[in-house]
Amino acid sequence: MRSQGQVRFITITSRVQMVAAGLALVAVLGWAGSVGGAAFSQYRASSERASLQQREAHIASSEERFTAYSDDIAETVADLEARQELLEGFAELLPDDVTGDASDTVTDSSAESAELISMIREVFPEAEGLALIEARQLAYVERMTRYADRRADRAEEAIRTLGLDPSVVISDDETAMGGPFNALFSEADGSLDPRFERLGLSLARMSALERGLEVIPQVMPADINSISSGFGYRRDPFSGGAAMHNGLDFRAPHGAPIHAAAAGTVSFVGVQSGYGNVVEISHGSGMVTRYAHMSRFNTQVGTEIAAGEVIGGIGNTGRSTGPHLHFEVRIDGRPVNPRPFLETAPHVLEEARAEFAPDSGQNADASNG
């Protein structure tokens, strides 16, 4: 210690230092023990609460519907009415004969419903009728789901047969969408039973794939017997050299009608170099059909076209040696041979549609089952 120019020293012996360190250590250990004990007590309390909540959740899950029936019949009736309205909305999308094959991916509520009905009958017989209604609704939901899956699978198979990718068809169907969000619900509290959600997804997939079938080129744009030049390499009619021909040529009288090969939206009407007067129709999934050398136009850009609709007349405009239709099919800008579509698609699509027609033999058999 320095004071008035003098320095004094205070010596702390080793024994005093050891005693002080020991006291500090005891204090630290005591504090740590207190904190640790409090933390352990809190953990044990939290663990016990979590375990209790898990047990309560398990009990609630197993007896949920029974409790609903016994506590509030009016609320249960509201649930069933909400489900029924949702079912009726789905039913409008399907033919009267709704059935389908068994599917491993679709739930089977029969055992669950039978157990619930048995519980209700023994303990709360007044609500047995409601339990029977719910069982019928769930069975109907599962039947519609199997039916939608079966139709979607058949449409997907047809699309693959024609050399197209079904996933592209589905993804293209989801583009250019919007609008206010209106959530589906099947319960009075606004929630959605997973079985109803599964049905909604199955119906959406079925609808997207079947719309994809409709836009595949399937109608001859002109008489098939008048094809004068095929797709691929050929001798160029002007230069005489080898050249690639990206479509089919249909020879016909000047002004003969040209038909749209599939449903779609007119995306181009005008003149293109070498093609003369041209109409292009976009069908979705990157598919476009092109009609060239036309003498007249019967449509305009933005028009929705049905398969087989007349869009113009055969002519001799552009690089052409005589009246004919040059017809192309392009996928993502790449020309492909139109002939397999035009010759195969009608039969493939007819089979896909016939399977689910109201008087279909398969449908009738499934219905009788």
Characterise this structure.
The protein is an alpha+beta fold and 369 residues long. The chain has three domains: 71 residues; 137 residues, no CATH class; 113 residues, Glucose Permease (Domain IIA) (Distorted Sandwich). The protein contains eight helices and 15 strands. The strands form four sheets. Strands 3, 6, 8, 9, 10, 12, 14 and 15 form an eight-stranded antiparallel beta sheet that branches. Strands 7-13-11 form a three-stranded antiparallel beta sheet, with no helix packed on it. Strand 8 and strand 9 form a beta hairpin. Helix 2 packs parallel to helix 4, helix 3 packs antiparallel against helix 4 and helix 4 runs parallel beside helix 6. The chain is flat. The termini are far apart.
Low-confidence spans: pLDDT under 50, at least 5 residues? 49-62, 97-102, 175-184, 360-369
Estimate what percentage of residues fall within beta strands.
15-25%
Overall SS class? alpha+beta
Mean pLDDT: 75
Helix content: 40-55%
Ends distance: 106 Å
Overall domain count:
3
How do the SSEs run, as a string of H and E? EEHHHHHHEEEEEEEEEEEEEHH
Instruction: Give the biggest sheet.
Output: 8 strands, antiparallel
Tally of DSSP helical segments: 8
Q: What is the number of beta strands?
A: 15
- Which geometry do the CA atoms define? flat
Rg, Cα atoms, Å: 37 Å
